[in-house]
Design goal:
Blueprint: H1 3-11, H2 15-33, H3 35-47, H4 54-63, H5 65-68, H6 72-79, H7 87-97, H8 99-108, H9 115-142, H10 144-150, H11 163-183, H12 192-210, H13 213-232, H14 237-257, H15 259-276, H16 284-301, H17 312-323, H18 338-364, H19 371-383, H20 393-410
Length: 414
């Protein structure tokens, strides 16, 4: 297919859908270099469906529980303002959660994207992260010895905005390439499979060099899920066994062959040892564990409704001063666990609503039938145990954009 024919098909989606594709591409670029671009892309996504009649958009929104249930993420934080003393901090969290309300409304006004448009979006995501990763790795190898040695002190590469969220996106980029290969989805020509292999290969190798544990855990959880899927549902035992063998052998080999990963694991062992001795200040993992204990303590004090999003920082500071007086103020952290973060801020009631908002749309739209959606959800869910992944613009944008895109693409199926 030539570019002229493809462009005609792309624009045939309708103007709102075409604008939505452009908005997604802007957001992906923003994930790697500009928060402003993420905001601009989201604004375009919200405005695009207004080309249609807004009353119809709201009517469809309320008829689609998979869309309005996502607003629970927003409302549990909004309502916590009723008992948050620090309204300024509360408004900060409300602003971060606002996309959970407005983006599902916007997607209610979009028709189902064509396969070509969906493929273009995945390509845009993969290419953006490939270029960004190559730039990061070039910077690493420009000062290889010093940066590699810094991994022994718990340092990380200079990665845009959040190394954990970045690694989760890079991991998903790898699986996007595998999905395009498996589904034989191309924009112009079947020889694109070599480009798809290259993009996935860069992501796979880079994840091990960057040595961000959340991304690596998500990668191998996803691979093991694919192995089980191939063996159980598709009866492809050879492929499944090969994936399991890869999932076992590659991490072991990488530990010995990739210095950054070797040093990262060495530091992790040291950090855990320091935590067992009560030495936590300036130790990355020890501080994470301490932040989780503090979050659980806050939940125990406010079990039903939490302390309120606006007061989480103040409550954490008070407990750090009481329980960890030797920890410097610069090391005070909010709970590095999504579940504990929700429990501390909105209590058991908010936690139940959070789980409903996370799981219900996935099942009622049938996304569980599509392995890319399952891997996406597993990747994020696995990160919740060591990171408050959704409590930041990039994490929120990544989760919502791809969840809504996959719901748009596959949620129309009978």
């Amino acid at each position: 297919m030539n570019i002229r024919v493809y462009t005609k098909q792309f624009l045939s989606d309708n103007l709102a859908n075409a604008l939505a594709v452009v908005a997604c591409l802007l957001i992906f670029i923003g994930f790697t270099c500009s928060r402003a671009l993420v905001s601009i892309g989201m604004i375009v996504l919200i405005i695009a469906p207004l080309i249609h009649q807004p009353p119809k958009i709201f009517l469809r929104y309320f008829k689609c529980p998979e869309l309005w249930i996502l607003s629970f993420f927003f409302f549990i934080v909004l309502l916590s303002g009723l008992y948050s003393a620090d309204k300024a901090d509360w408004l900060k969290w409300v602003r971060i959660k606002l996309p959970y309300l407005v983006l599902p409304i916007a997607f209610a006004g979009l028709k189902q994207l064509s396969k070509k448009s969906f493929t273009l979006i995945l390509y845009g995501f993969m290419l953006t992260f490939c270029v960004s990763t190559i730039v990061i790795l070039f910077g690493y190898y420009s000062n290889y010895a010093a940066i590699t040695e810094s991994f022994l002190r718990g340092s990380a590469l200079d990665i845009p905005f959040s190394h954990i969220r970045y690694s989760l996106m890079l991991c998903f980029s790898f699986f996007c390439g595998i999905y395009l290969l498996q589904q034989k989805l191309f924009l112009f020509h079947p020889k694109e499979k070599y480009l798809q292999l290259f993009l996935s290969g860069v992501a796979f190798v880079a994840l091990h060099i960057l040595s961000v544990r959340s991304g690596l855990v998500a990668l191998y959880i996803g691979l093991l899920y694919l192995a089980v899927r191939f063996m159980v549902t598709e009866k492809k035992f050879v492929i499944g066994t090969a994936i399991i063998a890869l999932s076992v052998s590659v991490p072991i080999a990488a530990y010995f062959l990739v210095p950054s990963l070797h040093n990262k694991i060495s530091y992790m062992r040291y950090d855990v040892g320091e935590y067992s001795k009560g030495e936590i200040n300036d130790n990355s993992d020890a501080m994470r564990l301490a932040s989780m204990k503090i979050g659980l303590t806050i939940w125990q004090q406010y079990p039903l409704i939490g302390c309120g999003a606006g007061d989480l920082q103040a409550e954490c500071t008070s407990l750090y001063q009481r329980d960890y007086p030797l920890v410097s103020t610069a090391n005070y952290r909010l709970p590095h666990n999504q579940f504990i973060w929700v429990l501390a801020t909105t209590g058991s009631i908010g936690f139940i609503l959070f789980l409903i908002a996370f799981f219900v749309p996935f099942f009622i739209t049938g996304l569980y039938r599509h392995w890319l959606a399952v891997v996406f959800s597993l990747s994020l869910f696995s990160s919740f145990f060591t990171e408050h992944s959704l409590e930041e613009q990039m994490g929120t944008g990544f989760y919502l954009i791809f969840l809504l895109l996959m719901m748009n693409q596959w949620g129309h199926e009978e």
